[in-house]
Amino acid sequence: MFKKIGPGVLVAAAFVGPGTITICTLAGVNFGYALIWAVVLSIVATIVLQEMAGRIGVVSQTGLVDVLKAELNVPWLRNTVLGIVLAAILIGNAAYEGGNIGGATLGLQGLFGQGTFETFYPLIVGILAFLLLWWSNYKTLEKIFVGLVAVMGICFVLCAIITKPSISEVLNGMFIPKLPEDSLLTVIALVGTTVVPYNLFLHASLTKEKWKSTNDLRDVKRDTIISIALGGFVSIAILITAAAAPIQNVDNVLDMAIGLEPLFGKMSRYFLGIGLLAAGITSAITAPLAAAFVTSSCFGWDNGMQNKKFKLTWAIVLFSGVAFLSFNIKPIQIIQFAQVANGVLLPIMAILLLWVVNKKSVMGTHTNSLTQNVFGFLIVGFSIFLGVKSILKVIGLF
Q1: Structural contact between residues 254 and 106, judged by C-beta atoms closer than 8 angstroms
Q2: What pTM value is reported for the model?
Q3: Phi, psi (5° rounding) for residue 35?
Q4: How far apart are CA 201 and CA 296, in angstroms?
Q5: Can you say whether the dihedral through the CA atoms of 98, 104, 109, 112 is positive or negative?
Q6: Cα(276)–Cα(279) distance, integer angstroms
């Protein structure tokens, strides 16, 4: 079974990062169990889109950008799409990398406290992520991620169980959609931290590294569904913990540890610290990796993950995040640009993904079924709604 686990684990690890932990915590504290349905919806959307991306990677044996370059025959359209993709992924991931490393830094603070070495925590995380990326091939990274995701999952699921949540309220929040007052932006954030555009590129590139034959498509589908569903289960566990625990205000993710002290005692800091550290490191690795895959495809570099330019790209993205934290730089304008770019990119990518996965010239007999297309078009509509909202939010109109 473990030999068949593949890139789905990396995708799950990428979206269950510090941002997801923070948003799920705030959703639970502010709205109780009412928004669990939004996490479930985002998991279904992620599975549908990521399965398509993974299938394209295996069937075409190229990255998603390579397929788009080959299929978009109108030069200005091809260059526009590639420009948006490159800007959103490269600059956006560099901006968000500060948050990923910040999450891992909070984990270290939970484990070792705030002291003399606190200033060096971002650099320690950055060096650890650098070494893992530099010395690891795909198979090694896969094993590391399985371990980190398992640790992260156990920590947060145990938290949820020990808080003894109301099962009826959990099921109610899961299957009966509600929009409490002032909750719309939180719903958008919950979906936005799960349905991540760069994961589509990462998944397509990694599936071709793992699988070489269309005979493996069943394994690709199984890996995608199981891994992303487990990642979603962890997100739901975090929301449940925050909703069930006696927490009043959350200014910092580690504030949840204070709320859990009556249940865990001082061990609450260690549970959350380990979970945050694992979540931060996994996201701090996948974001630069995705940026490097996209850049490599755009410029046609070969030799895969061992190409020097490929390594330089992820190193720049990684240490941009370290610099933002180490020197207290707040890249607000870059992050706002990243939000707008991702808001534009998600519906564009969802539409292009549907277009490519229905082309017989690319997919042969492995095009979408009617059911897959129906789900796909529903997700496109929803992603357009989310994209418009996120852009309006950034420019101050919503």
Answers
A1: yes
A2: 0.86
A3: -105, 15
A4: 11
A5: negative
A6: 5
